[in-house]
Design goal:
By secondary structure, the protein is an alpha/beta fold. It contains 14 helices and eleven strands. Strands 3, 4, 5, 6, 7, 8, 9, 10 and 11 form a nine-stranded parallel sheet that branches. It starts with 7 loop residues before the first strand and ends in a 13-residue tail after the last helix.
């Protein structure tokens, strides 16, 4: 039996459905977030932004591309990453002024160059600095703006790492965090191996009534429901599993309502969404720049096509807008059944 999915409350912000589009660098931009919301995501979080970037880029096209929140996708959150506590508060204020409803702080990114600059997951090894960052953001933004934190289960599997995790986890609630998202892999794991849902169960039991959102290995609608059922987390954040497959949100809503799993989107349904995604990207990035962004999304969308390998190669070879439209005209002309996306 599927668990009952209840709305989430992040402070005064209500999320009607507890399955959200997670922040994912290079992918959870404004066009993607709008598509995810239209297809059922309860909440979206923008791709991680450096605090210094936010402070330096306040006007012009670049700001409009990256610091962008619109009424259609609300409520939505922005994710911040950096190393120096003193820059987080001013950067968070600029994101609130841009229209984001919540601020999420990244203590989970496992990318090597990020760790080398003392950002993201590195801060899980520095509890005092991490907690100062959360404190600065909470003090800077208005009370009605929820502050949340994204964590991994620790730097590694050592006892010290575990202790540091709980020092930060317990500390952020005292500061006033509205929710914590926990990814079940360690920083050292990166994206390899399995996400520990058992650790998520432990963390949620420790948290009691406080909002914990689970993340890691969510590639299907049933995965989302199983994580909630097995771990007790209050909601889930879908990252890689939603890129190129925003229908996952529609599917999990159906299962949660006791309905059968909807079939994969047909090729015409896929084409409509891909075409709209391209239109939004062109609006956001401009006619020239959007093509590189959308080529990456096209590669992900191709997994739902019955001739996935051939379509993937076709998107890889796109270099000009006419070639993009030719791929859609050729491969999505007939309304054939789609297929479920593979995992990963």
């Amino acid at each position: 039996m599927n668990p009952q999915l209840l709305p989430l409350r992040l402070g005064p912000v209500t999320i009607d459905f507890p399955v959200i589009q997670a922040a994912l660098s290079g992918y959870s931009d404004w066009p993607n977030r709008v598509i995810a919301r239209r297809l059922g995501a309860g909440y979206t979080i923008g791709e991680v932004l450096l605090d210094q970037f936010i402070l330096d880029v306040t006007k012009g096209r670049k700001a409009k591309r990256y610091i962008r929140a619109t009424a259609e996708e609300r409520p939505s959150g922005a994710q911040l990453m950096g190393a120096l506590p003193e820059t987080f508060g001013p950067a968070a204020l600029k994101l609130v002024a841009a229209g984001f409803d919540g601020i999420d702080i990244n203590f989970g990114c496992p990318v090597r160059k990020v760790l080398g600059r003392c950002r993201g997951g590195y801060l899980l090894s520095q509890p005092a600095t991490a907690l100062e960052i959360v404190q600065r953001v909470r003090q800077a933004v208005p009370p009605h703006v929820p502050v949340s934190v994204k964590m991994r289960r620790g730097m590694d599997d050592s006892q010290r790492s575990r202790d540091d995790f709980y020092t930060i986890f317990d500390g952020v609630w005292r500061i006033g965090a509205a929710a914590v998202t926990v990814h079940g892999r360690s920083v050292r794991q990166g994206y390899e191996g399995k996400s520990s849902w058992e650790f998520l169960r432990e963390v949620k039991a420790h948290a009691g009534g406080r909002i914990v959102i689970g993340s890691g290995d969510l590639f299907t609608a049933q995965d989302c429901l199983e994580m909630i059922a097995r771990t007790g987390v209050d909601g889930v954040a879908v990252a890689r599993g939603a890129i190129g497959n925003p229908w996952i949100f529609q599917q999990v809503r159906a299962l949660a309502a006791g309905l059968p799993l909807p079939p994969p989107p047909s090729l015409w349904q896929q084409c409509d969404v891909i075409g709209e995604h391209y239109r939004l990207a062109e609006q956001c990035y401009g006619a020239e720049r959007c093509l590189g962004v959308m080529r990456n999304f096209g590669i992900k969308y191709s997994r739902l096509h019955p001739q996935a390998d051939a379509v993937r190669q076709a998107f890889i070879q796109v270099r000009r807008p006419p070639q993009w439209h030719a791929v859609l005209d050729r491969w999505y002309a007939e309304d054939l059944p789609g297929q479920l996306a593979d995992e990963g």
